[in-house]
Amino acid sequence: MGYEQIVFEEREGVAWIRLNRPDRLNALTTQLSEEALDAVGHVARDPDLRCLVITGEGRGFCAGQDLQEFADRGTDTLDVAEHLRSGYNRLITAIVELPKPVVAGVNGVAAGAGLSLALACDVRVASDAARFLQAFVKIGLVPDSGGNWLLPRAVGVAKALELSITGDQVDAAEALRIGLVNRVVPADDFPVELERYATNLAALPTRAIGATKRLLADALRLTLAETLEREAVAQAEQAGSPDFAEGVQAFLEKRPPRFTGR
Ligand code: LHQ
């Protein structure tokens, strides 16, 4: 698939999806969502890609649904539920279930489904120019694209409810304080720091990270007993991996490990 609304790059084991509609703050069109989903599928299939970064071109990260596209199609002719099921829902699920680390490089404003997109990633590295808002209520909608599930897991139920029913904007410093992002970097240093962060993640034992993502996500809906059992099964699988052998060997030889992601 050729891409027009995203830029897809691969460097040093890191796959980059750059949302590329800068004059619309990378608002999501049907085409953009399809291209991003296709790219995530490619990352899932390529064992040499060991980290995914999603970021935006220009001054925005993602302003959510392109409201112009939405208006042009006519709300009565567009089946909104189907639009979500076939578009955003598949993209969010693919990101959450990708068995590799996913970083949101939040370069600028993240609004509506754009905030959900950032939240679907495992970690959020933000520029100090970033802003965050659950914009839905401002246009008479409910949060979608997993926002009701993802936001309380990041900031707690009380804060999630407040942000969702007010649509209030949160700056990068506040986002860090409430746990909405993991790290804030000065805008000038952001590209270099984001690349460094992702390249480091890509050098870690990818399989263990994929399994950890699954264990943690499942643990939130399981009992301790069920989680202990899952950990036992997952650890037995991991203990047979080349990366575990390398990790132990490197420790014994007092050298840095060279993980391959296998
Ligand atoms: C945009 C957008 C945009 C088009 C900025 N669309 N052009 C909804 C519908 C149904 C089913 C599917 O699910 C969804 C999910 C959703 O995501 S609903 C939420 C949709 N998003 C919003 O409501 C956010 C709308 N945007 C804004 O509130 C502001 O633009 C923010 C706060 C994001 C940024 O504000 P500023 O930094 O002041 O930028 P701006 O407003 O001047 O925007 C720059 C340009 O981008 C501007 O165009 P122009 O031609 O005037 O330069 C905007 O019209 C355009 N743009 N967001 N979502």
Main beta sheet: 6 strands, mixed
Class by SSE composition: alpha/beta
Radius of gyration: 19 Å
List the helices and strands in order. EEHEEHHEEHEEHHEHEHHHH
Distance between the termini: 28 Å
Strand order of the largest sheet: 1-2-3-5-7-10
List low-confidence stretches.
none
The beta-strand count equals 10
Estimated share of beta-strand residues = 15-25%
Roughly what percent helix?
A: 40-55%
Average pLDDT figure = 97
Label the overall shape: globular
Bound molecules: ligand LHQ
The helix tally amounts to 11
Keywords for this structure?
262 residues; 4-stranded mixed β-sheet; 10 strands; alpha/beta
Word description of this protein:
The protein has 262 residues and is α/β, with parallel strands linked by helices. It is built from eleven helices and ten strands. It is globular and about 60 Å long. It starts with 5 loop residues before the first strand and ends in a 10-residue tail after the last helix.
Short précis:
This protein is α/β, with parallel strands linked by helices and 262 residues long. It is 49% helix and 16% strand. Helix 1 runs parallel beside helix 3, helix 4 crosses helix 5 and helix 9 runs antiparallel to helix 10.
List the helices and strands and how they pair.
Elements: E1 6-11, E2 14-19, H1 30-45, E3 51-56, E4 60-62, H2 67-73, H3 80-97, E5 102-106, E6 109-111, H4 113-120, E7 123-127, E8 131-133, H5 147-155, H6 157-166, E9 170-171, H7 172-178, E10 183-185, H8 190-202, H9 206-219, H10 224-239, H11 242-252
Parallel strand pairs: 2-3, 3-5, 4-6, 5-7, 6-8, 7-10
Antiparallel strand pairs: 1-2, 8-9
Ligand LHQ binds next to helix 2, helix 3 and strand 6.
